[in-house]
Write a structure and sequence with these properties.
- It is a single chain.
- The chain is α/β, with parallel strands linked by helices.
- Helix content is 31%, strand content 22%.
- It has helices at 48-55, 82-88, 100-103, 110-121, 126-139, 156-167, 186-203, 214-220, 238-243, 248-254, 321-326; strands at 6-15, 22-32, 37-41, 63-72, 75-76, 93-96, 174-178, 206-211, 223-228, 231-237, 305-308, 311-313.
- An 8-stranded mixed beta sheet has the order 6-7-8-3-9-10-12-11, sandwiched between helices. It has a 4-stranded antiparallel beta sheet with strand order 2-1-4-5, with helices on one face.
- The protein is globular.
Length: 327
């Protein structure tokens, strides 16, 4: 694997509540290489979007980053001043937000929204920014004449392409895509993902792709990280996550969607409910929902470790010889 474009090291993000601080992300660590699509999957509330907003430093109170580093091109961007971070966003790292309609300003035509981003970060004149915006619309297969239209005049799929075009405006090296196909039908989902992948191949940027749809992610991502209750519990190549998962939670996610070929199989869901982060148990966070739980799982903290080359898991069933002997 080449030198990473971005390295997240032991990222911790807490939320202040009346009942005490809640750690939504606990020592999350992963790398993304240049040109790589890294997927981040897990149930709703597992911390995926919190990671994304923290990388962009767009998290708002009561959230705060309580620890860790985010190394981008050799520099820890968590140490950047607000002004430097403002210049960094969109030019080096941009984001496609979860709901395109909510991400766009409903009372401004698209020309204003494109030009605002472009002129705020460059020395372009208004006319130059408009020409750049027209070029961006063509890139995502929207006619430049639509630049004067308002967001409500576009379909859901077109609005999503508009948000992608804005994210591409300053040629960033990394684009974070937080549920980029939410609320779109499956046909439009595929069109959007095919367009994203074609643009990645053309411009060479990296992608952090966030979704709870593991089947969608396996098809689109090079590597996948699985999150559960604020922790990264497994990281591997996408096909390995699908065909050879080590963590019981990952296996549960994989069995929650039907195969498109072969005999019909009964879908097996994951029993129980997500963990209450105010009541973190000793040992593994997945113990209450795991069908292979052992005494060790209830006492020994888990740690992400290499099971085989390129495949990491924090499950006690694998990787730690001392624990394995007890199991």
């Amino acid at each position: 694997m080449s030198e990473p474009l971005i390295s997240i090291r032991n990222l911790c993000v807490d939320y202040i509540t009346e009942s005490g601080d809640v750690r939504a992300c606990n020592n999350v660590s992963f790398d993304i290489a240049p040109g790589e699509v890294f997927g981040l999957a897990g149930e709703s509330g597992c911390g995926k979007s919190t990671v994304a907003f923290s990388l962009m430093r767009l998290h708002k109170p009561p959230a705060y980053i309580s620890g860790g580093e985010v190394i981008f091109n050799g520099e820890n961007i968590l140490e950047y001043s607000d002004d430097r971070m403002q210049a960094f966003r969109w030019s080096e790292m941009s984001m496609v937000f979860q709901s395109a309609m909510n991400a766009l300003n409903p009372v401004l035509p698209m020309e204003e929204q494109f030009c605002d981003v472009i002129m705020r970060h460059t020395n372009m004149t208004r006319e130059q920014a408009k020409q750049r915006a027209e070029g961006l619309l063509e890139i995502v297969d929207i006619h430049p004449s639509r630049l004067s239209d308002y967001p409500h005049q576009f379909s859901g799929g077109m609005r999503q392409r508009l948000v992608i075009a804005i994210a591409l405006a300053l040629n960033p090296k990394l684009i974070i895509m937080d549920e980029p196909t939410t609320a779109l039908d499956v046909v439009v989902q595929r069109e959007i993902l095919q367009k994203i992948y074609a643009l990645k191949e053309e411009f060479g940027f990296s992608i952090l792709f966030i979704t709870h749809d593991l089947s969608l992610m396996v098809e689109f991502s090079d590597r996948i990280g699985i999150m559960y209750s604020g922790e990264l519990i497994e990281v591997a190549k996408s096909q390995d996550i699908l065909e050879n998962p080590y963590h019981p939670y990952t296996k549960g996610l994989g069995s929650s969607f039907p195969p498109l070929t072969g005999p019909k199989t009964k879908l097996a869901g994951i029993p129980g409910n997500p963990l209450n982060l105010l009541e973190i148990p000793e040992g593994c966070r997945f113990q209450a929902r795991c069908d292979r739980v052992h005494e060790t799982c209830t006492k020994v903290p888990t740690k992400l470790r290499s099971i085989e080359p390129g495949h990491l898991s924090n499950c006690h069933l694998y990787g730690d010889p001392i624990v394995q002997r007890k199991l």
